TrEMBL record:
PROSITE patterns: CYTOCHROME_B5_1, CYTOCHROME_B5_2. It is found in: Endoplasmic reticulum membrane. It comes from Marchantia polymorpha. One of its GO terms (cellular component) is endoplasmic reticulum membrane. Keywords: Electron transport, Endoplasmic reticulum, Heme, Iron, Membrane, Metal-binding, Transmembrane, Transmembrane helix, Transport. This is Cytochrome b5 heme-binding domain-containing protein. Residues 4-80 form the Cytochrome b5 heme-binding domain. GO terms for molecular function: heme binding; metal ion binding.
Amino acid sequence: MSEGKLYTLAEVSEHNNNKDCWLVIDGKVYDVTKFLEEHPGGDEVLLSATGKDATDDFEDVGHSTSARGMMEEYYVGEVDKASFPSKPTYHAAKSPPYNHDKTNEFLIKILQFVVPMAILALAVAVRFLTKKEE
């Protein structure tokens, strides 16, 4: 395999249709346009791998040694790894500070339960007291 030209991911991404299809696999750029109709998985599989690093897609399928050997005839160059977008970094969601003293919250929850129960008990007591007087 001869040394090819260095392409940016943006340049490779422009080749994303069935008349002009380039892929990036293991940092190498392949023009697979002529292979689209012959690909056993169909051209959609190859077209869906354009515009990104298709290495994982390629490896997940488990291509044979002969398939790997065929790649050489489609090789056009290398991709500039610096042209890949940086990986997104994880940012934890902002949460309110931890409240060690939950007394107020606990008291409110208790009152939300106790007050309606007290009203219900009072209503039942009034009902029974007025029934006895009749």
